[in-house]
From TrEMBL:
The keyword Lipoprotein does not apply. This is Phosphonate metabolism transcriptional regulator PhnF. One of its GO terms (molecular function) is DNA binding. One of its GO terms (biological process) is negative regulation of DNA-templated transcription. NCBIfam families: C_P_lyase_phnF. SUPFAM superfamilies: Chorismate lyase-like, Winged helix' DNA-binding domain. It comes from the Bacteria. Residues 11-79 form the HTH gntR-type domain. Keywords: DNA-binding, Transcription, Transcription regulation. Gene3D superfamilies: Chorismate lyase-like (3.40.1410.10), Winged helix-like DNA-binding domain superfamily/Winged helix DNA-binding domain (1.10.10.10).
Amino acid sequence: MDELVNRGAGVAAWKQIADAIEADIRDGHVPPGERLAPEPALAERFGVNRHTVRRAVAALAARGLVRVAHGRGTFVEAGPIPYTIGARTRFSEIVSRTGHEAGGEIVSSGITQADATTAERLRIPVGAPVLAARFRRFVDGLPFSHGRTALPLPRFSRFLDAFSESRTISAAFAACGVPEYRRAWTEVSARISTAADEPQLEIAPGRILFVVESVNVDPDGVPIQASSTLFPADRATLRLES
């Protein structure tokens, strides 16, 4: 049945619609991961135009209740996933332990020269060649993080080919002769998302992101990877273990 907005309530139509959809989510009528009804159906349900519906959905997305996947629809956000960062941090293992499916992709890659920060973290000369890559990681098909990573060359010249075959970082390192590695240090901060982050993570503008800077080392303590990873704050609960 149509739920026409109350034009004399003193509350904007888009706000009434947002409240109604939020109630649907809270009451379990639209569970986490489920797609909302499309804009035309919502417009008919509430007796408004699609622009008003779009504003309501944008407000819900800004609050982290839904995410808009362009070309696929609007989905209810799942709750945050516990993500433990310690001496042995393995994305696929961490996600699998929570009962979810992990995935990942290399968005872009290339050989470049180490800047001062990368050189310090990898303990190599400034200007030394490194394999630089931008990546995304997924949980149940939803973007969970994105960022950049740098690995020293020529030691990891086979890394990309190995990752393409295995789809896991650990297996790619093993193929390059590093079957075991550990986290040397992790630094966590936060910032507001930018226009470059939002399509990568399928988030609304202005969302809070965790910024995780890290360095991994081989069993001899030699740095093998320097990374900067961004997590939407409402998709991950970060736990740091010593």
